[in-house]
Amino acid sequence: MAFEGLAQRLQGTLQKIKGKGKISEADVKEMMREVRFALIEADVNLKVVKEFVKTVSERAVGQDVMKSLTPGQQVVKIVKDELTNLMGGEQNPIQFARKSPTVIMMVGLQGAGKTTTTGKLATVLRKRHNKKPLLVAADIYRPAAIQQLETIGKQLTLPVFSLGTDVSPVEIVRQALEEAGKEHHDVVIIDTAGRLHVDEKLMQELKDIQTLSKPDEVFLVVDAMTGQDAVNVAKSFDELLGITGVVLTKLDGDTRGGAALSIRSVTQKPIKFVGMGEKMDALEPFHPERMASRILGMGDVMSLIEKAQENVDEEKAKELEQKFRTQTFTLDDFLDQLQQVKKMGPLDEILKMMPGFNKIKGLENAQVDESQMGRVEAVIRSMTIAERTTPEIINANRKKRIAKGSGTSIQEVNRLLKQFEEMKKMVKQMTNMQQKGKKKMKMPGFDSFFR
Amino acid sequence: MSFFKKLKEKITGTNETVTEKFKDGLTKTRDSFTSKVNDLVARFREVDEDFFEELEELLLQADVGVETVMELVDQLRWEVKRKNIKNTDGIQSVISEKLVEIYKAGEELDANLNMQDDLTVILMVGVNGVGKTTTIGKLAARLKEEGKTVMLAAGDTFRAGAIDQLVVWGERVGVEVIRQSEGSDPAAVMYDAIRAAKNRKVDVLICDTAGRLQNKVNLMNELEKVHRVIGKEIEGAPHEVLLALDATTGQNALIQAQTFKEATNVTGIVLTKLDGTAKGGIVLAIRNKLNIPVKFVGLGEGMDDLQPFDPEKYVYGLFAEGLEEEAWE
Ligand SMILES: Nc1nc2c(ncn2[C@@H]2O[C@H](COP(=O)(O)OP(=O)(O)OP(=O)(O)O)[C@@H](O)[C@H]2O)c(=O)[nH]1
Ligand SMILES: Nc1nc2c(ncn2[C@@H]2O[C@H](COP(=O)(O)OP(=O)(O)OP(=O)(O)O)[C@@H](O)[C@H]2O)c(=O)[nH]1
Ligand SMILES: [Mg+2]
Ligand SMILES: [Mg+2]
C-alpha cells in the first residue's frame, strides 16, 4: 500500500503534454494538482503545500523545456529543485561555545528519540570532534528514563550525570554544569523529558533549563513519521525556546518524511542530523537533496534524469529510433547503444535509482552483469563492417574467427547473434505498436544483461 | 430524534466520568477541530463547491489521508444532494454521521477485548516510541481495577532501559513482571512468562515487545516468531494483538497497520498521545481499508489515561461542541 510517488502520479498527465517546447499555464495547473496530492500523502502540512505549489507554479510557467527532458520531467525537476532549496543548503556543523563547555539541549515530544539521539550525538562528538561529553539525565518523569540513559552511557563508556527522580530538572542541570566544570567536560548534552507542546507547565520547565544553562544548541528532535501536526509542534517549541536545529529520527523507516519540509518552512531552522537506526552509530548528516527525492517518492530519479541528460545524445537517440522504424538497425548501432548506457554509470546503480525497481517481482535480486556487457562489446568489435551490418553472412568459420578475436567462445557469439535477432523481432513488434499507441521507445536488449 | 440528541442522551446516560475523561483529553483536539468546523459553517451560507473544498482541507489537516477524504467528501456531496440541504446549518450533523458511518462501515465493531475463561494473552506491537510499554502499564491498571489478575512479560530485551521501564510500571500497578536479562531471546521470555502465568493462574498476561519499524524484515520475522511461540504454548493465543499507533503519525500509520497485521494478525489498535493537538485521523483510513478497529485511546502518561474507543464519542468530541453551544444559546 505504499503511496504513489510524484513520478507515478504524474504519468497520466505527462502523457498529454509530451513534445511541447514550452510549459503552459494549463499544463502546470494540471500537474500541480498531482504535486499537491503527492506532498500531502508525504505528510507535508497542507498550508506548506499550498505555499510551495504557488511558488513552483510561478517558476514553471513559460519555461523552455530543456532539450533532453520532456515537459513533465522538467516540471518534476523544478519541483525537486525548489524542494531541495527550501530544505536548506549544506548541513551546518554543531555550534561550539567559545568558552567550554558547549551546552546542547535535547527537546521534543514523547518518544521522538531524544534519549537515543543524546547517545548518538555524544558518539559523533567524541569520534569526529574529539570531545569529552557529559550526558545529563534531566528526565525525572518517564519510568526508567534515567536507567535508559545510564545504560547508553555504559555502552559508550561515557559518564552520565543524574540525581535520581526527586530533584528538579533545573537543579539537576545546574549541578551537572558544575560537575562539567570540575571534570573538564567540553560538551554537556541535556536529555529532557518528552512533553506536549501545549503542556504549559512542562514547557516552562524547558524555558527555565534554558535560562539557566544558556545552551549553544537547542535541538528539536522530531519523529520523521509525524503528520500534519508537525507544524504546530515545531512552531511551539521554536517560539518558546528559539531552537537552533532539528534532528529527524527514524528515517530508516519507509515514511516519506514530509514533516521535514513542514518544520523547515515554519521555523527556518536547519535540519542538522537524521537518525537512521536504533544503534549508537546511526546518526547521519542531513542531505537536502536526498530528502527532497524521498518526499517526492522518486528514489533518486532526478539524478537519473540528470545523468541521462548529461550523457544521452538526443540527436543520436532520434537517429536510432528512425533506424528501428525502418528496420535498419545493425550490430553497430547496438554497440553504440551499449556505449551510451555505459556512460550513464554502473547499471546496478542506475537501476537502484529507479523508483519501484526493487518492488518488481523477481527482480529484487537481479544483478546486472557488467562483464557480460564487456564481452558483448568485444564480440561486436571483432566483426567486420559487413558482418555488423548484415549478420546473416556470419557462418561457422567467421564465428570461429570472431570468438578467437574477442577472446570469447563460439557459444557466446551464437548467443549474441540470437539475442540480436530476437531484439530485432521485438523492435518490429514495438514499432508496430508504436504506430498505434505511440509509446516511448525503450532501451532495447536490456534484459539480456540480467542474470 | 436527531443523531446528536440521541448521541448526547446515550453519552450522558452512560458512565459520566469516563465520558468526561475522554472529553477532557480530547478538549484540545476538539477545540481546534470544532472551531474550524464552526468557522467553516459560519463563513458559508450555502453548501457549494467552496464549502466542500474547505471541508476537504479540514480533514486533510487531521491526517485522514487523501483517499479517504475524497471518498468521504464525495459521499457528503451525494448526501447533501439527496437530502436537498441548501444551507450549512444542517451540515454538521451530516458530517459527523458520515464520519461515524465510514468508521463503522456497516458493522458494529466489538471494541471489547476478547477475554478467555482461563488465561488471556495480549501481545503489544508497534514501531519505536509509540507508547507500547506505557499502554501496557495503563491496560494492566484497568484490568486490575476490573478485578482481574494480571502479569506482564518484558519482551523488549533490546532497547536500553526497556525492562526497567516495564518493571517500574509493574510496581506502580502492583502486578508481577516476568523478565530475563537484556539481550536475551524475546521468544524465550514469552515462553517463560506463559508458564509462569499458567502456574500462578493469572487471568491476563500482557506481553511487551521491542519497537520495530515495519520495513525491517529481520525484526518483523522475529516478531512473527514471538507470535508463533505464544500460539504453540496456548492454542488460539495471543487472543489479542494490539497495535500501538501514535496519533501524531501521518500517513505512514497505514503502512504500519498493514505490515503488522500481516506479521501478527493485529486484532485492535491503541491510538496513543491523543491528548496532544494531533487528530489521529488516519484511523478512519485504517478502519476503512484494513478493517482493524481502534480499541483504546491513550490520553496521557498516567496510569488511568487509557480509555476505550467509541467512534461516536470520538466524532462527537470532534464536532459536537459547536452544536451543543448552539443548543444552549
Ligand atoms: N529505527 C529507529 N529507531 C529510533 C531512532 N531514534 C530513536 N529510535 C527508537 O525510538 C524509541 C524512542 O526513543 P527514545 O530515545 O526513548 O525517545 P525519547 O524522545 O527519549 O522518548 P521520551 O523520553 O519518552 O520522550 C526507542 O525505541 C528508540 O530505540 C532512529 O533513528 N531509528
Ligand atoms: N502524552 C502522552 N504520552 C504518551 C502516551 N502514551 C505514551 N506516552 C509517552 O510516550 C513515550 C514513549 O512511550 P513508551 O511506552 O516507552 O513507547 P514504546 O512504544 O514502548 O517505545 P519503544 O519500546 O522504545 O519502542 C513515553 O514518554 C510515554 O510516557 C499518551 O497517550 N499521551
Ligand atoms: Mg527520553
Ligand atoms: Mg517499550
Automatic annotation (TrEMBL), chain A:
InterPro entries assigned to the protein according to its UniProt record, in alphabetical order: AAA+_ATPase (IPR003593), P-loop_NTPase (IPR027417), Signal_recog_part_SRP54_M_sf (IPR036891), Signal_recog_particl_SRP54_hlx (IPR013822), Signal_recog_particle_SRP54_M (IPR004125), SRP (IPR004780), SRP54 (IPR022941), SRP54_GTPase_dom (IPR000897)
Gene designation per UniProt: ffh
Catalysis: reaction(s): GTP + H2O = GDP + phosphate + H(+)
Subunit structure: Part of the signal recognition particle protein translocation system, which is composed of SRP and FtsY.
Pfam families to which the protein is assigned, alphabetical: SRP54, SRP54_N, SRP_SPB
Compartments where located: Cytoplasm
SMART domains noted in UniProt: AAA (SM00382), SRP54 (SM00962), SRP54_N (SM00963)
Name of the featured protein: Signal recognition particle protein
Alphabetically ordered keywords of this record: Cytoplasm, GTP-binding, Hydrolase, Nucleotide-binding, Ribonucleoprotein, RNA-binding, Signal recognition particle
From TrEMBL, chain B:
Enzyme Commission number, as recorded: 3.6.5.4
Keyword Methyltransferase included in the entry's annotation: no
Protein name per the record: Signal recognition particle receptor FtsY
Membrane-related topology note: Peripheral membrane protein
Catalysed conversion reaction: GTP + H2O = GDP + phosphate + H(+)
Family: Belongs to the GTP-binding SRP family. FtsY subfamily.
Reported function: Involved in targeting and insertion of nascent membrane proteins into the cytoplasmic membrane. Acts as a receptor for the complex formed by the signal recognition particle (SRP) and the ribosome-nascent chain (RNC).
Location of the SRP54-type proteins GTP-binding domain: 293-306
Principal location: membrane
SMART domains xrefs: AAA, SRP54, SRP54_N
This protein's record includes keyword Nucleotide-binding: yes
Family matches, as NCBIfam families: ftsY
EC top class named in words: hydrolase
Keywords: Cell membrane, Cytoplasm, GTP-binding, Hydrolase, Membrane, Nucleotide-binding, Receptor
InterPro entries: AAA+_ATPase, P-loop_NTPase, Signal_recog_particl_SRP54_hlx, SR_rcpt_FtsY, SRP/SRP_N, SRP54_GTPase_dom, SRP54_N_sf
Subcellular location: Cell membrane; Cytoplasm
Gene that encodes it: ftsY
Subunit annotation: Part of the signal recognition particle protein translocation system, which is composed of SRP and FtsY.
CDD domains for this protein: FtsY (cd17874)
Binding site for GTP: 126-133, 208-212, 272-275
